[in-house]
Each structure stands twice: as C-alpha cells, then as structure tokens.
Amino acid sequence: MGKKIISPCISICKTDPVSGFCYGCARTDDEKRLWKSDDTKDDWKKINLKEITTRMQGWQLETFKESYNYKKKFGISLYKKKLFDKK
Fold first, then answer.
1. What is the pTM (predicted TM-score) of this model?
2. pLDDT at position 86, please?
3. What is the pLDDT of residues 20-47, one digit of tens each?
4. Which one of 2, 32, 79, 84 counts the least CB within 10 Å of its CB?
C-alpha cells in the first residue's frame, strides 16, 4: 500500500464564478467531491493534481505549490498555520 495522496485543498475555498475553479486549488466542485469519495482511485488523484496545476500560473501557482508542499510535510496548510500562529 502506497502513501496517501493528500488533498490539494489549501484552505482558500472560494470559487471563481466565471471559470468555476477554486481560487486556492483550481479544482471544480465536481473534482472536490471526487477527492472526498472513497471510490476515487489514486491514479485519478495523481492525474487531477497535474491538471489543476496547469490551470494556475504566476503567483497562484507559486503559492499553491508552497502551501501544498507544506501541507504534505506538516499536515496543515500555510493559511491554517497562520491562523493558529495568531492565537
């Protein structure tokens, strides 16, 4: 059994009304639902991770990569870390 594939959610959950993509992770609402489904295969998740990063560019892509890598390492997004640090 391989390592669990971590959800690309970085806690910036607002959907662009024109594109339908989340500002934080660039997923559609359907893709978000698929990530939560126990029936979704890891192969689909790996492909989806590549797809969503192609939807991003510039600062959005850079901040996504930084926050997602932090989440994979520490189990929490940078956004949530900053919220906890303020307390």
1. 0.89
2. 79
3. 999 999 999 999 999 999 999 999 999 9
4. 2
Instruction: Name the amino acid, one letter, at 6.
Output: I
Q: Report the Cα 72 to chain-centroid distance in Å.
A: 11
Query: Comparing C-alpha atoms, which of 78, 77, 68 is closest to residue 5?
Result: 68
CA–CA distance, 39 with 54 (Å, rounded to integer): 25
Q: How far apart are CA 60 and CA 66, in angstroms?
A: 10
Q: What is the dihedral of CA 18, 59, 71, 12, to 10 degrees?
A: -30
Backbone angles phi, psi at 18, to 5 degrees: -85, -55
- Name residues whose C-beta falls within 8 Å of residue 45's C-beta, 6 or more positions apart in sequence: 5, 35
Distance CA 16, CA 86 (A): 28
Please state the φ and ψ torsions of residue 22, each to the nearest 5 degrees. -70, 135
